[in-house]
Structure to design on (279 residues):
C-alpha cells in the first residue's frame, strides 16, 4: 500500500533559504564544524577535541552569566541574579555529564594521540581561570601561562583588579547586617581565600534568623549549590585523568592527578561550608 510522502512545506514550513537566514547561518555552523583538526590518525582524538571545545563553549556561557549576575547583585536585582546563579549550577551539571563520554576512551586509545598534544593542556584554559577569578579563587601566579597572548593576559588582569562576585556578596552581607555606615567594613578576601571569622560570624546570623534575612539566606544556598556542582566537575576531572593516564605527569607539565587532587581542597566560599558545623 502506497503512503503519501510527508511535505512539511504544505503546512507552511519554509524549505527554500536562498533568500533568508537558515539555522546554519544563524549559528555559523560552517565555522564551528570546521574547527576540529586531529593531528593523528587515532580515532579517539576527535572525541578528545570535541569534548574540550564544547566545554569551552559552556565555560563561555558561565562567564557571560556570572558577569551579568555580578552586575545584577550590585544593582539590587536579586531575582535575575538568582536565576543566573541557578543556570550556572546547571551548566556545571552539563559539564559533569561530558566526563562520562570522555571516560569511554581507554588508556590505549589516548596513548595513540597523546604525543600530538605537545605541551598543551586544559591547565592553560584562560576561560577556566577567568571563572575562578570571577567566583573569588584568585591566584595571580596563574596569569603567567597567558602572558604570550596580550589580550587574554589583559582580560584576566582586569578581572583581578575588580571585586569578585563573592567580594560583592560579602559587601552586601556586611551592609545588610551592619547598616550602610558600618563601623567595620567588609574585609578584603585574600588569595587563596580561607574562612574569615568576621564573614562567618555574619553568615551565622543569617542562618540563625532566615525569616528576617531570607534574601541573604537564599543567596548563600545558591552559592553552596553552585560550588557543589563545581566541585563535582573538578572531582570528575580527577577520576577521568586517573582512569586514562594514571599518575603520569600532565601534558602541560603539572603533576597530573596529584595536582588535580590538590585543587579539590580549594574552597570558593569557605565560610558557607564551615558554618554548617556551627549551626
Amino acid at each position: 500500500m502506497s503512503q503519501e510522502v510527508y511535505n512539511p512545506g504544505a503546512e507552511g514550513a519554509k524549505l527554500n533559504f536562498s533568500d533568508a537566514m537558515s539555522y546554519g547561518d544563524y549559528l555559523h555552523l560552517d565555522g564551528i564544524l570546521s574547527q576540529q583538526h586531529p593531528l593523528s590518525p587515532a580515532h579517539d582524538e576527535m572525541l578528545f577535541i570535541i569534548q574540550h571545545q564544547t566545554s569551552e563553549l559552556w565555560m563561555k556561557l558561565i562567564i557571560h552569566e556570572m558577569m551579568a549576575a555580578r552586575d545584577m547583585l550590585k544593582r539590587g536585582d536579586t531575582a535575575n541574579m538568582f536565576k543566573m546563579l541557578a543556570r550556572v549550577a546547571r551548566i556545571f551539571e552539563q559539564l559533569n555529564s561530558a566526563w562520562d563520554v570522555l571516560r569511554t576512551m581507554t588508556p590505549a586509545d589516548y596513548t595513540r594521540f597523546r604525543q600530538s598534544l605537545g605541551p598543551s593542556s586544559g591547565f592553560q584554559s584562560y576561560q577556566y581561570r577567568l571563572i575562578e577569578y570571577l567566583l573569588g579563587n584568585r591566584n595571580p601566579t596563574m596569569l603567567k601561562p597567558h602572558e604570550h597572548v596580550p589580550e587574554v593576559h589583559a582580560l584576566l588582569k582586569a578581572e583581578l583588579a575588580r571585586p569578585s562576585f563573592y567580594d560583592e556578596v560579602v559587601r552586601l552581607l556586611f551592609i545588610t547586617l551592619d547598616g550602610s555606615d558600618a563601623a567595620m567594613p567588609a574585609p578584603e578576601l585574600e588569595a587563596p581565600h580561607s574562612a574569615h571569622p568576621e564573614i562567618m560570624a555574619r553568615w551565622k546570623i543569617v542562618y540563625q534568623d532566615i525569616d528576617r534575612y531570607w534574601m541573604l539566606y537564599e543567596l548563600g544556598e545558591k552559592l553552596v549549590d553552585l560550588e557543589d556542582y563545581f566541585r563535582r566537575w573538578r572531582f570528575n576531572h580527577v577520576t577521568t585523568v586517573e582512569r586514562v593516564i594514571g599518575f603520569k605527569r600532565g601534558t602541560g607539565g603539572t603533576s597530573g592527578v596529584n595536582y588535580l587532587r590538590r585543587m579539590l581542597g580549594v574552597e570558593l566560599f569557605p565560610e558557607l561550608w564551615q558554618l554548617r558545623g556551627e549551626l
The first helix runs from residue 23 to 27.
